[in-house]
Amino acid sequence: MKGPIPKTFNKNLFRNFIQDAASIRVIAISIALLIVIFFVFFHKEELVLFPSAEKLNVNFYTDKNDNGMSTVLSSNRNDSVIGFHFMLKKGFVVPYSGINLAKAEYQVFDVSDYNRLEVRVSSKNVSDLLIFLVTKDKNVKDTNHRLRDRHTSTNVEISDKRQTLRLKFKNFSTPDWWFTAIGQPKSDFSEPEWNSLNQLSFATGLNPILGKESAIELYKVRFYRDNTEVLVAMAIGEFFVVLSLLLRFYLKGLKSGENSNSVNIRYRPVTIDEKPETGFSFLDYINENFNNSELDLSQISKATGVNQRYISDTISDKFQVNFKTYVNQIRINEAKRLLKESDLNISEIAYSVGFSSPGSFNRVFKSMTGKTPSEFQEKPE
Question: Is the pTM for the entire model greater than 0.90?
Answer without folding.
Answer: no
